[in-house]
Amino acid sequence: MKRSFLTLVAIIICFLIKAQHFIAEKNSSANFPIATVSKATSIYVDPADDQLVHKAAALLQKDIEAVTGKKPAVISSLSKSEKQVIIIGSLPGSAIIKSLVAKKKIDVNNIQDQWEAFRLQTLNTPVAGLQNALVIVGSDRRGTAYGVFELSEQLGVSPWHWWADVPVKKRPAAYFKNGSYGYSSPAVKYRGIFINDEEPAFGGWAREKFGGINSKMYEHMFELILRLKGNYLWPAMWGKAFNEDDEVNPRLADEYGIVMGTSHHEPMMRAQKEWTVHKKEYGNAAWNYHTNKEGLQKFWEDGFRRNRSFDNMVTIGMRGDGDEAMHDMGSMKANYEQLEGIIKDQRGIIEKITGKPAKETPQVWALYKEVQEYYDMGMKVPDEVTLLLCDDNWGNIRRLPAVNAPKRKGGYGIYYHFDYVGGPRSYRWLNTNNIARVWEQMNLAYDHGVDKIWIVNVGDLKPMELPTSFFLDLAWNVKKWNAGNLDSYYTQWAARQFGNTWAKEIGQIMKKYALYASRRKPELLEARTYSVENYNEANRISNDWNNLLREADQLNEKIPEAYKNAFYQLVLHPVKAYGNLQNMYIALAWNQYYAKQNNALANGYADQVKQLYIKDSLINVEYHQLNGGKWNHMMDQKRIGYTSWSEPRVQRMPQVSYVESPASSQPASFTQASTTSASLIPATAKGNLFYEKDGYVAINAVNYTRKKDIKNSRWESIAGLAREGDALALFPDLSKNALADIIQAPYVEYEVYTAGKGDVEIQVLLSPTLNFQNTKTGLQYAITVNDDTPQNVSINPETVDSRTWSQWVTNNVNIKTTKHRLAVAGKQIIRIYTQDPGVVIQKIIINLGGLKPSYLGPEETLLKK
Length: 865
Fold this sequence. Notes:
Elements: H1 5-18, E1 23-24, E2 31-35, E3 42-45, H2 51-68, E4 74-75, E5 84-90, H3 95-102, E6 118-124, E7 132-138, H4 141-155, E8 174-177, E9 180-183, E10 190-195, H5 201-210, H6 215-227, E11 232-234, H7 242-245, H8 248-255, E12 259-260, H9 272-278, H10 293-307, E13 314-316, H11 332-354, E14 363-366, H12 370-377, E15 386-390, E16 412-417, H13 435-447, E17 453-459, H14 465-476, H15 489-498, H16 500-517, H17 537-558, H18 564-596, H19 601-624, E18 689-691, E19 696-700, E20 706-708, E21 714-722, E22 725-731, E23 747-754, E24 758-766, E25 780-785, E26 791-794, H20 803-811, E27 814-822, E28 826-833, E29 840-847
Parallel strand pairs: 3-4, 3-5, 5-7, 10-11, 10-17, 11-12, 13-14, 14-15, 15-16, 16-17, 18-23
Antiparallel strand pairs: 1-8, 2-8, 6-7, 6-9, 19-29, 20-23, 21-22, 22-29, 23-28, 24-27, 24-29, 25-26, 25-28
């Protein structure tokens, strides 16, 4: 969707200023003292300003003391003894800020009347008696808080200092570089997280540490969201009622400036648990609008009235009780017509209680599962309601508005997942979310005009620290990150937690972990996942994890003691835990292989499985004992013993076999002499060139021989997005109409040399992007071999929840196969054309008759000159 030139300029300015650093340790005439070696500068807040501004000032006071050892005073009046002061205030709430604006001491033109914008600026003689001041001013209360926390983070206080035990960066003094630093409004208006699927881990932890998921716990969460520049929360809801479990919860959320909502199936600010507890008080106690209309209306009215004075995003609509499909009215049309009536009645309740038009209360309607189908069939909601589009629960967006669709006043949002309970299998244990995929999908959404709400299901929050940071950073400034610089996020994030000394090494470990872990969810691992017989695949996977653990262990020995708890949580534990589980299943695969051969080596692998199963529990204990047991229960989630989509009631070690009367004890050898066509490649040939090996050709898509871009439609590699490394995607000019002839579209070309000829199959391995345009064919590419007739391939006409879709998300790849005929041996030219966004190519495999089964496919047959 086209955006105005002024918006683009604002984004660029925001990025440039964000890249600047304004903290120095040494004093100079060009610096303002936040804290000298002897004292900290006082913090002034107008007594009449918003509660959030006062909370932000109090937290800054704590942060400055933690960093420098000097505690600044928080004052509400200026005395003659103060020569320097930090002034914190919101434009609508601070009298001194209004005075400075009136006297033209500070320029607020770029933040006035903006959403959550802020500025940090030093001033000489801001008011009589003051020599100079550092002013942190926000366009509103949250903008002011974000300015404070921007200062805190640059001082050395990570947003994760409490939630991941990241130590503050101590310094004897801190100075602010004189100048003015402005931050424009965020790219996405509402940016938040959803605590979900919170039992047994998060719930067990919260009950032990706080007595429950209550205001004592939520205060830490509200602070985290603000420090991450978020503003929106769906609270824990598995048997929880945010507003009833602790009556302090909603008031505290409002004091912290957090916009509260409820999940996609909990309308009108009422939790599902509230219905479970109180349903007998409302009509016939049925969650059925057809038979209990008045009872449900009263239930919703009571909930909305209770929360009416707080900052809310009201979920409207209805699903069945317990997040199931709604009661069937006999047809899809009848179902959505009833839902239209429900929404109309809910908006009537809003108007009744507020005394204002419903459009003045923010509302969201989630297009989740069957509700998406109602919308596709033509169901309508008022224009000011935000349409919350969803992914497939596996990080692949189901639907996006057309680029040229009329703008809606309520706009569009996305509900995304880092955690899920459901088919084809629940995944809740470790972070397996590759930020490259998150970026590719959410950038696609933003380019299609989805900029009102971004909310992500983070499960237990831990261990989703990295992707949660990335999601909210991206939502704040989407265009700061692109295919060219995305790779640097790991290093930058590591520097924010651990400092620059170790940032590059930590970033590399985290990047490799994201690549390896996103190949397949650990809950989906089996002995047969990776082949022990073909392409040395199982051994290569095991080596990947073992080498990564070695890197992490070596770095753990070098980093200062103060960082070790954070390093274990954010870096070492996920590598140890996933790597150990992977090695257990590979040992199981070898046990099964050798047992079938009646080979004594099966017994050693059976023992390894047992040892690694025990080690899995010991790794859990390590985590739970960190920092005096602060995070006990956070790794309670089960991950071994799945037999269906839902988690097992208890973990069970996989069954192993022992050989009592072995016929052999010799290891298997799968090594054989290879034949290749590399000798057919002329010495004068240039570019990336590929050859046949043992009846196949394997190509990593990013290593094309040639490419053709067209104007603003370009091919770009996305680092770390493929299962084995980088992926290739077209970024088309969305303002242009599709070309009539696919061979006029951009293409990539691969020069291949084969010894064989005749009939071949070509597999194109793609990321599992969905048919987000909702067309009959889905996204398409075309493929040619040696200028034969292009074959158009529809990559995703299948629906979510189909067997085919299940295979895509299980394997994290969508494989499309075409048949071709090679007229002669030798040089072959393969071209792949597309003009669709979201076509992400990972790998290409040509099967000339020798391809063997494996998970990743054979290693690349690229001639290395």
